[in-house]
Amino acid sequence: MSPARISPLFGRDVRRIHCLGVGGMGVGPLAIYLAGMGYAVTGEDDGLGAEMATQLAIAGVKVAPLPAECDLVVHTSAVKPAHPAYAAAAARGVPLVRRGHLLAELATSRQLVAVCGSHGKTTTTALLITALRAAGFPAGYVLGGLLADGSPPAAAGTNPWLVAEIDESDGTIGHFSPEITVAVNLDWDHPDHYRTPQALGQAFAELFRRTRGTVLNFGQSSGFAGTIAAEDAAGMTLRLSASFTIPTARVRAVGQFNAANAVAALAAAQTMGVALTPDLLADFPGVRRRQAVLSTAGGVTVIEDYAHHPAEIRALLTSLRGRVGPAGRLWVVFQPHRPSRTAQFAPEFAAALALADRVHLMDVYSAGEAPVAGGTSADIARLNPGFTASPALEAFPAADLKPGDLLAFVGAGDIEHAARDWLSKRVGRVALNTPPATPSSHWDLWAAQLTAQVSPETKIRREEPLARKTTLRVGGAARVYVEPANAADLRATLRAAAAAAVPIFGLGRGSNLIVPDAGVDGVVIALAHPTWSRFEPRPDGSIWVGAGLRLKNLCGLAATAGLAGLEFLEGIPGSVGGALRMNAGAMGGWMFDVVEEVELMTWEGSQLRLPKTAMHVAYRHCAELHDALALGALLRVPARGEEGAARGPSALSISRQIDAYRQKRHESQPREPSAGCIFKNPPGSSAGRLIDLSGLKGERVGDAEVSAVHANFIVNRGEATSADVLELIRRVRARVRESQGVDLEPEVLLYGQAWKDVL
User: Which phi-psi region, left, alpha or beta, contains residue 291 (left: φ > 0; alpha: ψ -120 to 50)?
Assistant: First the structure.
């Protein structure tokens, strides 16, 4: 939608919007959505984190003080009239509006799917977004959190639908009139605004009455249901009720609470008219701060979760109980959120937290509220003599943790920062207290030592499942998995691995590779932190891109900037780093066709910048990246839109070219999970044609199958293993050799093994 077509807001011609509290999970995604709609957006926040800052920069939202020219200011309910920017805008006569009210106004021109409820609405919204994207259904969306894979928390979309998480906490729920309402549950909360359970129930009942189409109320009966049929470390399979058009669905998440959220998301997608398939949620990336694993060093699993209502905490701890070993204990560090909620629900908090073996209470996170009688952590602690309460985590008895224990940092305030600070100081000491008596404990020791050398923002995990991080969705775990937050942490990781002779494996988006079922005996490094996803157009027409940037996002950002020449990359399910490593190609174009310079870091930790002329690039190979990780690249594209305009005619033609390539790919490539082309094309021939001529389309081993759409793809029909895929590769090679006289060579990478030892 171009700026000239933007509908008036609140009866005004609004083009420039300033966002107060843009670092938060409410206003930040809304700012990104506004930018995608064509508004000129600025924003400010005293506590802007790196992840949201990166998302705002990618979207073109400028972080700056209140500009001189501004048509509207949007703010969170936590921003009060005394805030300097609020006061300045009011003094200048600039209209001010709360986040929920503006979102409701924007939604009047769309078919709104409103996801609401007391608990789980962020996860449900994220699951629905995942399903729509997997189905190729280009709805707009506004999420109230950050997706764990670094993809945007909001998008304008190109069809009439808008999916949005609706927050009832400040009363702005009264402005919405959705097409579809998805109510995940209903528990009394926000007693500062809703004095009784009946008042909150009335707000939801009125929303249901204003809903123009379908209300899916999972707090009562929606006609849709599902149960967990199977569950493992990589996810779960749901058995769905007869109301669904499919009998089962695979979800990359675990636990009853996530199962309920997935059922709600699939029900909403079906109601919107999406054709369901069993794998729409198989690539769900998760949401930041929702049962996210921070560490497994020393055999102690440390997670963080956003739960802050007694019902959420009870559901979380019930789920976590099943993940604690028979000799392990469940520990909880809880930070209550808002004095009013703490005072109202202190007995319920005490009862829910009693499900843990040990509980430590931090001070209440006020969220801007004034103190309330009975609304302190000490008030909860008095209800259970086994709880401890102290604002400082130094008082937490870390020395008592032992292998098999699970420690959860729980709360919606700033406990995530306290958790990381504690982890950086303590977890190494805990792990080092574990005698290295087995190979596993050697890995624990190495991971713990690395933890002490890097910043808290760097993620280090033991036995991290890799299947869900690949497009084929097969294989085991990495002995150690690292997501470095910056170049210094990456260098420390590489040097620590070199010093200990630990094998190193780079991981991008997980396409074009096969992970063995036994996993990877080494350290797997993924540049998944937002710091590696930079997109920086330069005045001379070149672009600097980070290695972690998804190729799909690169194409979208380039099109928005009016830069042509990268459209061929849109359909490759990888990142810039992986595309450089493999010289990825599609639609007649190759990655190194547009590369001018590459920045890399060798396995020894040396950081280099090399021009393309100094690099040795071949079909699906770049020699300089065999023992190094690409950090980013300078791209030179052959054409630029009219005066660099983001919305000019050339941007439209770029989008049309992307759509044409996307359509061609959908017609010629399978939709099921795959690793892309399995074999290299022999000189003067096509691997897919040779496999087809050998009568192998539909050949199957277990749930691994030669695609009927494109014979050079092996697809995962649901529960394939790496062993299934490798046996099918051997069978295909033997048949093609016998019938066509050609030895096909694998194009995909075999993680941690050599093809010569497998074929």
Answer: left
Q: Name the DSSP letter for residue 679.
A: B
pTM above 0.70, yes or no: no
Domains, in order of start, for the chain: 1-99 (3.40.50.720), 110-288 (3.40.1190.10), 289-432 (3.90.190.20), 533-666 (3.30.465.10), 669-757 (3.90.78.10)
E strands in 166-279: 180-183, 214-217, 226-232, 235-240, 248-251
Three-class SS state of 554: helix
Query: How far apart (Å, rounded) are the C-alpha atoms in residues 403 and 297?
Result: 9
pLDDT tens across 133-159, in order? 999 999 999 998 888 777 889 999 999
Alpha helices in 180-327 (DSSP H): 197-210, 256-272, 310-321
* 572 Cβ contact list (under 8 Å, min separation 6): 511, 551, 579, 584, 586, 676
CB 585 within 8 A of CB 591: yes
pLDDT at 728 over 90: yes
Tokens 């995530």 found at: 416
**Residue 117 — left, alpha, or beta (φ > 0 → left; ψ -120 to 50 → alpha)?**
left
**Phi and psi at residue 236, in whole multiples of 5°?**
-145, 160
Burial of 499 (0-12, 13-18, 19+ CB in 10 A): exposed
- Which is it for the CA torsion 139, 145, 148, 149, positive or negative? positive
Interatomic CA distance for residues 560 and 35, integer angstroms: 11
d(CA 595, CA 576) in angstroms, rounded, equals 11
CA-based nearest residue to 240, from 253, 224, 251: 224
Q: How far is CA 574 from CA 532, 582, 618, in A?
A: 14, 10, 19
Helix, strand or coil for residue 610? strand
- Residue 534 is encoded by which pair of tokens? 């930079």
Taking only the tens place, the pLDDT of each residue in 184-209 is: 877 655 555 556 767 777 777 888 88
When computed from its CA atoms, the radius of gyration of the chain, rounded to whole angstroms, is 26
Cα angle, residue 221 at apex, residues 215 and 226 outer, rounded to 5°: 105
DSSP summary character for residue 604: T
Question: Tokens 């966002």 label which residue?
Answer: 19
Beta-bridge partners for 525: 482, 506
Cβ-contact 85, 18 below 8 angstroms:
yes
In three-state form (DSSP H/G/I as H, E/B as E, the rest C), the secondary structure along 685-736 is CCHHHHHHHCCCCCCEECCEEECCCCCCEEEECCCCCHHHHHHHHHHHHHHH
Give the E-state strand segments of 471-561 in sequence order: 477-483, 504-507, 513-514, 520-526, 535-537, 542-546
Contact 315, 375 (CB under 8 A): no
Write the pLDDT tens digit of every residue in 97-114: 988 889 999 999 899 999
Task: Give the C-alpha separation, 594 to 459, whole Å.
Answer: 32
Alpha-carbon distance of 387 to 380, in angstroms, equals: 8
Distance from C-alpha of 649 to C-alpha of 645, rounded to nearest angstrom: 9
Residue 380, token pair as written in the block? 């909860």
> What is the per-residue pLDDT across 641-664, written as a single tens digit (0 to 9) for each?
433 333 443 455 555 655 655 555
Q: Which two tokens stand for residue 636?
A: 């030179």
Q: Which two tokens stand for residue 738?
A: 């016998």
Given a contact cutoff of 8 angstroms between Cβ atoms, the answer to whether 251 and 235 are in contact is: yes
Q: Identity (one letter) of the amino acid at 359?
A: V
Residue type, 139: A
- The rounded distance, in Å, linking the Cα atoms of 40 and 70 is 9
